[in-house]
Write a structure and sequence with these properties.
The complex is a heterodimer. Chain A contains 15 helices and 2 strands. Chain A is mainly alpha-helical. Chain A has a domain of 177 residues: MetI-like (MetI-like fold), CATH 1.10.3720.10. In chain A, strand 1 and strand 2 form a beta hairpin. Chain B folds into 2 domains: 187 residues, Periplasmic binding protein-like II (D-Maltodextrin-Binding Protein, domain 2, 3-Layer(aba) Sandwich), CATH 3.40.190; 210 residues, D-Maltodextrin-Binding Protein, domain 2. Classes of the chains: A mainly alpha, B alpha/beta.
Chain lengths: 318, 420
């Protein structure tokens, strides 16, 4: 028989905690995330999966979908013994043109921002005037530019006519110039957007560094390149992201200004996808989905790059 | 005496029939009739609202619920509308355009309606409503296409309405010598070029050939198709069409016609309203049938037909069928197609034509001078995908006629894929 010593227990009384209490720290973030994750799955991830699924079918959106395997891709990309879909080829190269030329908005926005970054009476008014094109709808921008480009009566034709230049069929009627005409229209609001990003960026430029650089004799281009621009890196990154995304989304301007024409020369992938699947003569859902998948992978390339560089940034900051 | 007796007798019977018919209708039609219509432009909208209100009044137990959708938007919305919980009656278009809905079983078969007596008057459009030997809806209006021209300019230059291709080319040359373009056209939205092809192809090789092409039975690279394009090219090389037409919609091409910079416009009759609004008087305007090209070929005419259909999922089938009877009856047809309403042609042969010189000429042309057949228009006769690829090619041809080989090869590739 053992006798328990008459000493009080030294263990703290185990508090009666529930399972949730015990795992609170690990669980709470997930609880907060449930709703957004559910929405993200329902409205983004699942539809992406469905698009992939549909792209292996032939489907008019009404009846039964027929499984066709890789047929849509073979036709689109010219795999196997098929020729590449010429509409796709045109759209793809137009997308590349958009991506490259749209980036002009970044330097243009930067220089307008530098120009406006001064204290003059009424500078706020000037700034807002420069920002104006970004505020009005893309549809309005498209309409204004298509009138600007109209043959015979449009202002552009009058100006080029003064210099003896003539574009056959008008800017938007000529398959060689139409895409560039639309990109120019798109650059107008996009430049304004980049300008605003840089204007806010310029506010954060460290004036002490600028002073120091001045003392060291830096000015003009060297000052801009070695002192100002490095400090604007975050703004440049955001401007780059929104411009790339803007270029890939270039749908409304095309739809308003040329409707993909003349003879399909201004199509881009997003417009072609819409035409095949949802337009008046469309409803080839499978083929449209295949275009969407290709566009998805192109976008994915950029998105992965953006995420990767943001992650690098955060790692550096830690 | 005899005749008075007879007429009153007939009147009595007619009244009796009418009352019994309406009494019968009263007793059977109840519930709600849901109509989705695309008649969204001001004049058609008034017509549709008037019809719905009248039909509602005729059947006290029946409530008519009308939804009017924007005409362009309806072209894509109809799919969703017909899917779940569909309306009873919907607007759509004849011929190939109704194919997808018929194939998917979304339109109700109304073949037995067409066997009724009243529908004998609709014989001319029966073909356009038929798929697989069954009828899938009823027409309510159609309109002719043709060449609208500036009579004042023609008179000034001493020109007359051309009947042959040679006269046509000669007229055109005279106009061009006077610095007037022969034709205005706006091809930005492509379909206007489809109208030109319909006429040139059917005038060169006839209705049957044109429809065979539409059904995918003829290769686009066929020499006969090339002949059609060669005829077209004659006009293009002369400079018959206004410049830079790929920049304009059909409305934006109107000013050339109004200002007398172009003398004629190949268009549907709906353009007349726009001509008049633009300030042209009936003395300045006239109409002629597209001239013969091949003298051995009968005239075929574009006359697109707009239609009503019953959704196969309709809840109030009886009311829907009664509405289709109502819409196609001679009285309603006369009324809704009159000059003060739609201003188009009634589909029922027993209806009267509105008092309008273009409607009268159009009706005359379609009923007695279109032995070849009635086409529904390029984008309704050809399957949707072929139509969109095709019209893009036609536009390119009108701007760069030298690209013809490339265009035809492309269309032929599309044909082989689409019709397989």
């Amino acid at each position: 028989m053992s006798v328990s010593p008459a000493v009080p227990t030294t263990h703290a009384r185990q508090p009666n905690r529930g399972w949730y209490r015990r795992n609170e720290i690990a669980l709470t973030p997930w609880l907060f995330l449930i709703l957004p994750v559910a929405f993200f799955l329902t409205y983004v991830v699942v539809p992406i999966g469905q698009s992939f699924w549909i792209s292996f079918h032939q489907w008019d959106g009404l009846g039964e979908a027929t499984w066709v395997g890789m047929d849509n891709y073979n036709r689109l990309l010219g795999l196997g013994d098929q020729n590449i879909d010429r509409k796709f080829e045109t759209s793809f190269w137009n997308n590349i043109r958009w991506l490259v030329l749209y980036l002009l908005a970044i330097p243009m926005g930067l220089f307008i921002a530098l120009f406006l970054n001064q204290t003059v009476t009424g500078i706020r008014l000037y700034k807002s005037l420069f920002f104006f094109p970004f505020v009005i709808s893309q549809v309005v921008v498209g309409l204004v530019f298509s009138w600007f480009y109209l043959p015979n009566v449009g202002l552009f034709e009058i100006i080029t006519g003064f210099f003896g230049l003539e574009i056959r069929g008008g800017v938007l009627g000529n398959p060689d110039t139409a895409t560039y005409g639309i990109i120019a229209a798109g650059l107008w609001p996009q430049t304004a957007y980049c300008m605003i990003l840089y204007l806010t960026g310029l506010n954060a430029v460290d004036s002490e560094q600028v002073e120091a650089a001045r003392l060291d004799g830096a000015k003009g281009w060297r000052m801009l390149w070695f002192v100002i621009i490095p400090q604007l890196k975050p703004a440049t990154f955001i401007a780059f992201v929104v411009t790339i995304i803007g270029a890939l989304r270039s749908f409304d301007l095309i739809s308003i200004m040329t409707n993909g024409g003349p003879f399909g020369s201004t199509r881009v992938l997003s417009f072609y996808m819409f035409e095949e699947s949802l337009s008046e003569f469309g409803f080839r859902m499978g083929y449209g989905a295949a275009i969407a998948v290709v566009l998805f992978f192109i976008m994915l390339g950029f998105i992965v790059y953006f995420l990767w560089s943001m992650w690098q940034d955060e790692k550096g900051a830690r | 005496m005899h005749s008075i007796l007879k007429t009153s007798f007939v009147a009595l019977i007619a009244a009796g029939v009418a009352t019994s018919a309406s009494a019968e209708a009263h007793s059977t039609l109840s519930g709600t009739l849901r109509i989705s219509s695309d008649m969204s432009n001001p004049a058609p909208r008034a017509v549709m609202e008037g019809m719905a209100a009248e039909f509602d009044e005729m059947h006290p137990d029946l409530e008519v619920e009308l939804t009017i959708v924007d005409r362009e938007a309806w072209k894509t919305q109809i799919r969703n509308a017909l899917g779940a919980n569909p309306p009873d009656v919907v607007n759509w278009y004849a011929a190939n355009r109704m194919g997808p809905y018929v194939d998917a079983g979304l339109f109700a078969d109304v073949t037995d309606l067409w066997e009724e007596e009243q529908f004998e008057g609709l014989a001319s459009t029966k073909g356009a409503m038929t798929i697989d030997d069954k009828q899938w809806g009823v027409p309510y209006t159609y309109y002719q296409w043709g060449v609208y021209y500036r009579a004042d300019i023609y008179e000034e230059l001493g020109l007359s309405e051309p009947e042959t291709w040679e006269e046509e080319l000669a007229n055109c040359q005279t106009l061009l010598d006077n610095d007037i373009k022969c034709y205005t056209i706006g091809t930005k939205f492509l379909w206007t070029a489809g109208g030109w092809f319909d006429y040139l192809n059917s005038r060169t090789h006839g209705y049957d050939f044109h429809m065979a092409l539409a059904r995918g039975e003829v290769e686009w690279t066929d020499d006969r198709v090339r002949e059609t394009f060669a005829n077209w090219r004659e006009l293009i090389d002369m400079g018959a069409f206004i410049d830079d037409h790929q920049n304009y919609s059909w409305q934006e091409a109107l000013p050339f016609f109004q200002n007398g910079e172009a003398a004629a416009y190949l268009m549907g009759n709906f353009a007349v309203a726009a001509f008049r609004e633009g300030g042209l008087t009936d003395e300045q305007l006239d109409f002629y049938q597209f001239p013969k090209i091949n003298p051995d070929v009968d005239y075929a005419e574009d006359a697109p037909t707009d239609t009503f259909h019953i959704a196969s999922g309709a809840e109030n089938m009886d009311a829907a069928r009664e509405f289709l009877r109502y819409v196609t009856s001679p009285e309603v047809q006369t009324r809704i197609n009159g000059g003060d309403a739609l201003g188009q042609l009634p589909v029922n042969a027993n209806a009267e034509i509105g008092d309008d010189k273009f409607l009268e000429q159009g009706f005359e042309m379609l009923s007695s001078n279109a032995e070849g057949g009635i086409m529904q228009f390029f984008d309704r006769d050809f399957p949707a995908e072929m139509a969109s690829v095709g019209m893009e090619g036609l536009q390119e041809f009108m701007v760069f006629p030298d690209n013809l080989d490339d265009i035809l090869n492309r269309l032929e590739d599309a044909r082989q894929r689409i019709y397989e």
